[in-house]
Amino acid sequence: WLGNLPGGTEFAYGLVVGKYLAGAVCFGSTAGTNVKNSVCGAEFADRVITLTRGCCAFWSHPHSGSHLIAAACREMAKKGYNVIVAYSDPSANERGVLYKACNFLFCGPSTGSIEKFRRLDGKIYDARNVHLLTRDRPGGTTKYKRSRAEQKQMMMDDGCEFFKDDVRKLRFVGIFGDRREKRILRSALKWPVQPYPKRQPSSDVQPQESYVTF
Q: What is the pLDDT of residue 4?
């Protein structure tokens, strides 16, 4: 749907069938420190990581997605990341069904707007990735280094369009680990847990809030 990899990917897992890659899922910290602190408090901020991308091949088993996500999250818990934040985008017809199958908690829609930029080829990226372009270290040697403001201005001069995206994504939180860890982190969760969003019974019915459609 997004057509690109996220900046800041730290871990990636694949679902391999023989010599073929049936699916992949990526984890990173693109959500920012403030989001990490807000999930279960500053005390457990270092336990939080974001599931940034995930997909499966069209020929994979129907349950490949939930199997891959659950297995990858268990592996992340072994690394000390017991709290997995994930988002689904209603504009991409994502309903969070896989997260529900993996026992993630639904924590409502995200709030506020997100700055993004559109390149000349039409691809859209999160503006938080601008800082990744401010320096280049080929062979471990810094070739150039710019401030974020300088990089953003350079991109605008080259034709990139920066804009605010007010589309609300659906937030999910998965808690993994042993029973004690899950009990402690669940009690520390600060995001309000809500019932899973329900699908409308008919496509002719238009909901008042778009996020409850999917």
A: 62
b/e burial code for range 193-204 (CB count within 10 A of at least 16 → b):
eeeebeeeeeee
Phi-psi label, residue 27: left if phi above 0, alpha if psi -120 to 50, beta otherwise: beta
Extract the tokens encoding 175.
């808690």
Containing 37, the helix (H) or strand (E) segment is: helix 33-40
* Residue 121 CB neighbours (<10 A): 6
Residue 127: count other Cβ atoms within 10 Å of its Cβ: 18
Residue 133 DSSP label? G
Distances (CA, A) of 211 to 67, 80, 109, 207: 25, 32, 7, 9
Count of other CB atoms within 10 angstroms of residue 91: 12
Which two tokens mark 74? Answer: 């268990």
For residue 165, the one-letter residue type is D
What pTM was estimated for this model as a whole?
0.71
Instruction: Give every residue of the chain whose pLDDT is below 50, as ranges.
Output: 202-214
Chain centroid to Cα 128, Å, comes to 13
Contacts of 66-72 with CB under 8 Å at 24 or more apart are 66/98, 66/101, 66/102, 67/15, 68/13, 68/15, 68/23, 68/24, 68/25, 69/25, 69/98, 69/99, 69/102, 70/102, 71/13, 72/13, 72/25, 72/27
